Amino acid sequence: xxxxxxxxxxxxxxxxxxxxxxxxxxxxxxxxxxxxxxxxxxxxxxxxxxxxxxxxxxxxxxxxxxxxxxxxxxxxxxxxxxxxxxxxxxxxxxxxxxxxxxxxxxxxxxxxxxxxxxxxxxxxxxxxxxxxxxxxxxxxxxxxxxxxxxxxxxxxxxxxxxxxxxxxxxxxxxxxxxxxxxxxxxxxxxxxxxxxxxxxxxxxxxxxxxxxxxxxxxxxxxxxxxxxxxxxxxxxxxxxxxxxxxxxxxxxxxxxxxxxxxxxxxxxxxxxxxxxxxxxxxxxxxxxxxxxxxxxxxxxxxxxxxxxxxxxxxxxxxxxxxxxxxxxxxxxxxxxxxxxxxxxxxxxxxxxxxxxxxxxxxxxxxxxxxxxxxxxxxxxxxxxxxxxxxxxxxxxxxxxxxxxxxxxxxxxxxxxxxxxxxxxxxxxxxxxxxxxxxxxxxxxxxxxxxxxxxxxxxxxxxxxxxxxxxxxxxxxxxx
Length: 479
Fold this sequence. Notes:
By secondary structure, the protein is α/β, with parallel strands linked by helices. The chain has 3 domains: 38-58 and 127-391, TIM Barrel; 68-126, no CATH class; 393-478, no CATH class. Helix content is 56%, strand content 8%. It is built from 17 helices and 8 strands. The protein has helices spanning 9-25, 50-65, 69-75, 88-97, 102-108, 110-128, 147-166, 186-204, 221-238, 266-273, 284-290, 303-316, 343-369, 383-414, 418-441, 446-451, 464-478; strands at 37-42, 133-137, 173-177, 211-215, 246-251, 277-282, 322-324, 375-377. The chain has an 8-stranded parallel beta sheet with strand order 7-6-5-4-3-2-1-8, covered by helices on one side. Helix 10 (266-273) links the parallel strand 5 and strand 6 (277-282).
């Protein structure tokens, strides 16, 4: 008797075609690095030394308003912050009792150990590489200016970026935000794009790694289609390799979510963007304004932003397109920066900075809990909080995540039923992703990954299924 499988060649062809198309679109982010933040900076303020100056400003704010781990913990309302010593002598006694033994430190004084670990990592990061991504802004952070002025700024900023790269001072990722491709702005947008990229290629000899163009206020698929063609024509004119110019689009208006016929638009934009589209970012304040929400309630934690984030995640999950959250617009600035020096001035400044830091910390942590590992910063003094929130998030979850990953690896590797491995794969993949993100941002190192059950040769492995396959193969060879 003929088996059913011998009669379905036509169906297998259909499935293979569909599966291949699915795999191409939902290829996952792979090993493409994702920064924890993008700092937006007005083009009129950008200079060759901006990366250094902004990093120095971030470090200065941190050392001024978080002089020690206990101050940082109190500023950001860490758990148990009020139980930590308020004098340096008490902190030094704690440190002396636990030198070289973080495990005992965590068991004896978990709140102090967390504060210390976060503080040390933030300080190290701010000294080493405080800015991970910087966007030179020709849109909201720049405003409407005479054409001659924007032309000059576009060229000057491109030369400044090339100089920063040559000096080794630029961030790993960088780029520009042009004005939207709406009727009122399209000519200006194209002119700025052309002048900046052309000047950058002339000054730098090409487009740096990690460079991208941010396209704001996207409303329809045509905006993406035209952006792609503009980038392709610019590449051909400048002799750049195909695909050198990549872009990200912004969700800032309600119309980008659904078209006039009620169709969900974001997946169409992601598909239209193809391999050039690297990220989709939420513009909190323009988006909430487009919803008719009054300025006093325009915030990253507004329910309408939650809705937008959910739709963005649904449209981008499984693809190579990364998602980026918005910003906190309450800035940590000193109300009496130029006032008289005195205890009262110091107190007011500290309270204002800590209040803004705490709000920013709450927003960043909320994003991380929601699966959003990148967001915007609008001021260098927000950067220390960005890293503090990330390090606290990963360190607090590390013990539980380590135990779960180790358990999954043990059970899944030993399983003989393939279905059991598949049941665990999604959770295992999420855990593996947690460790890679934690290591990428500086919260943990290789030692913590090894302690979670990974082998040295598996530290760069990003596919949980492939990791298990390799382990099973090794187990089968060893008998």
